[in-house]
Amino acid sequence: MSDDLDLGDAAEYILAERPKLDEDDVWAVLNELGVPPQKGGDDMAVALLAATHPHIPAKRVRLVLKEWRAYASIAVEDDWELD
């Protein structure tokens, strides 16, 4: 995954895909991690978020991570534009 992903675009994508997610929770996950964790890194990411943002349930963190990876996979395509 590239660390050149724009967090604003990622948040916009995630919230468009999952409009019932709380925007503050999405931003907490994105800002805390900076980049989506590598495959197999979800447990560590969930543990970190549990320590720093205990109000965000693990299930919600995992959902944000899933959508963030989906965004990352399409954002690297040459013809991808969020506009």
What's the order of the H and E elements? HHHH
End-to-end distance, in Å? 21 Å
The residue-averaged pLDDT reads 90
Q: Main beta sheet, described?
A: none
Unreliable spans? none
| Structure annotation, total helices | 4
Helix content: 55-70%
Calculate Rg over CA atoms: 12 Å
User: Would you count the extended β strands for me?
Assistant: 0
- Proportion of residues in extended strands: under 5%
Principal-axes shape call: globular
Q: Structural class per helix/strand content?
A: mainly alpha
Q: Can you offer a commentary on this structure?
A:
It is a single chain. The protein has helices at residues 7-17, 23-33, 42-52, 58-75. It is mainly alpha-helical. α1 crosses α4 (58-75).
